[in-house]
Design goal:
The complex is a heterodimer of chains A (234) and B (109). With 234 residues, chain A is an all-alpha fold. Chain A has helices spanning 2-36, 41-50, 54-65, 70-81, 83-95, 100-108, 112-124, 130-158, 171-180, 187-202, 210-233. Chain B is mainly α. The chains are: A mainly alpha (234), B mainly alpha (109). Chain B: The chain crosses the membrane at residues 6-30, 42-61, 90-108.
Amino acid sequence: MQTGMGAAIRRGLVDSIPFLIVIVPFGMLFGVAGAEAGLPIAQVMGFTVLVIAGAAQFTALQLLQDNAPLAVILLTSLAVNLRMAMYSAALAPHLGKARLWQRGLVAYLLVDQSYALAQAAYEREPGRPLPQKLGYFFATMSTIAPVWFLATYCGARMGAAVPEGIALDFAVPVTFLALVAPGLKTLAHLAAAGTSVALALALSWMPYSLGLILAAIAAMAAGAQTEIWMERRA
Amino acid sequence: MTPDAVTVWAVIAGLAIGTFVIRFSFLGLVGQRRFPEWALRMLRYTPMAVLPGLVAPLVLWPEATGGAPDPARLLAAAATVIAGIWTRSVLWSVAAGFGTLAAGLALFA
């Protein structure tokens, strides 16, 4: 049991390392973007520490600069985060029996990276006891969260000193693509990704990121349906 | 123009609380419940369903070029995906993406 817990924590720490190299530029980019938008460091760090959701933070920052009304800013940014309800549902069967404060802490730390790592680990070894599953989850975020905070802080301090030619704007797409591409393992994954791209582009005229929500729902259905179809053929 | 502090903090507070509620939703409220097979099946595809759609417009119509498609960024996106599928590694995928972007920007500048 002791060794099992230690192994789970070590595994969480090791598994999180590749993500750190992705998170550093991503966090710095948000810091730089916030500073360039004229936000003081306290506000930039407020976003990063209280929200911990890069894509939504960028969305909110962009709309703040466009002087969009508060309700529109919140609706659009929260729409970007709606996927996390699905992460929450996916982890609930594994972590649902944890104490309330533990589930609260998991919720606060539930980001794309910790979800992806935990989901993969729990599917690999579904029989692990709850404390080890929690230990693995918190271990991954014990590196990812502080590095995310620190990278944002450094970015905000550097601010406008970043040279123009570095094309930091594209760190976001590269990061997201790199998170997705290694997971394109089956026809069902390809169907989901393809549907997501096609519909998100076709529906990009819709306000408040509604197009993305609809594309995501259709893409999930496409993935699930393809999986059922493949199982029948197998 | 720089947004005023009250508005920014209102956005931060609203986004922080709203995001927590979204993240806590199933873990907190219906955590003990079992999920039907079709729901679990759909949940397997959530990252694959959301992130490509989130990225696609950023790749095709990058803000840095005022929304005009840009060969360096398109190539970088393609390299990221190909390297990710080929190596199954997030790290190599990111490296391929940024390497191609740097090369492409130097080449097309």
